[in-house]
């Protein structure tokens, strides 16, 4: 069975934290593709980027996503870049699962991301990197989404509650 709901969005949108809250509200299991990758590879996401490089990470990420789309029937939160490949986009659409784009501004994401955590893509000038990622990705997130939720002023629990309403 495909996921009950898929959460997408940029780093700091709250996919992992909102996803956990949402799974409790919906009484569904929760899976985060980043967590599956780290467990499977026995390394943190940051370590995988350093040791094996981003192309390797993206290959593993795509395989994990394709598997979860057919095996996981609960709440599925994706890594920020997981929905970007053509194959990923096709598989997400084919799953028929409702997709929620958790939106956030740079000002909203900055304090959440802290720009000092395990986010290898934001090394260097994290604010500029984040904005650059978002400029490229926003059209893709929007094209996949059945629902879009601006999370700047919402706690993870408020965002989860709003998603329950959007899905009903
Ligand atoms: N709506 C929110 N309000 C306040 N803090 C939040 C909110 N959503 C998430 N946070 C906090 O921001 C941090 C980042 O959130 P989270 O890890 O859920 O983002 P993410 O979208 O999964 O990012 P990534 O793409 O890097 O996995 C966490 O410490 C979390 O507690
Ligand atoms: O936005 C991204 O491309 C990423 C987000 C994180 O969830 C991780 O999947 C990784 O740090 C890459
Ligand atoms: Mg996450």
From TrEMBL:
Substrate binds at residues 34, 58, 80, 137. Keywords: Amino-acid biosynthesis, Aromatic amino acid biosynthesis, ATP-binding, Cytoplasm, Kinase, Magnesium, Metal-binding, Nucleotide-binding, Transferase. One of its GO terms (biological process) is aromatic amino acid family biosynthetic process. It is an enzyme of class 2 (transferase). Gene3D superfamilies: P-loop containing nucleotide triphosphate hydrolases (3.40.50.300). The keyword Amino-acid biosynthesis applies. Its EC number is 2.7.1.71. It comes from the Bacteria. It catalyses: shikimate + ATP = 3-phosphoshikimate + ADP + H(+). ATP binds at residues 12-17, 119. CDD domains: SK. It is found in: Cytoplasm. Mg(2+) binds at residue 16. GO terms for cellular component: cytosol. One of its GO terms (molecular function) is magnesium ion binding. Catalyzes the specific phosphorylation of the 3-hydroxyl group of shikimic acid using ATP as a cosubstrate. This is Shikimate kinase. The gene is aroK.
């Amino acid at each position: 069975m495909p996921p009950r709901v898929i959460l997408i969005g940029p780093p700091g949108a709250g996919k992992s934290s909102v996803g956990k809250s949402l799974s409790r509200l919906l009484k569904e299991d929760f899976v985060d593709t980043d967590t599956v990758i780290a467990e499977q590879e026995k390394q943190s996401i940051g370590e995988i980027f350093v040791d094996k490089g981003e192309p390797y990470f993206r290959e593993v990420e795509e395989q994990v996503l394709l598997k979860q789309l057919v095996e996981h029937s609960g709440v599925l939160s994706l890594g920020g870049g997981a929905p970007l490949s053509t194959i990923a986009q096709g598989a997400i659409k084919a799953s028929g699962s409702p997709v929620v784009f958790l939106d956030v501004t740079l000002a909203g994401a900055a304090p959440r991301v802290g720009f000092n955590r395990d986010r290898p893509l934001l090394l260097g000038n994290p604010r500029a990197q984040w904005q650059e990622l978002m400029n490229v990705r926003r059209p893709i997130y929007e094209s996949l989404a059945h629902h879009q939720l601006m999370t700047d002023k919402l706690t993870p629990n408020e965002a989860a509650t709003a998603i329950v309403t959007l899905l009903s």
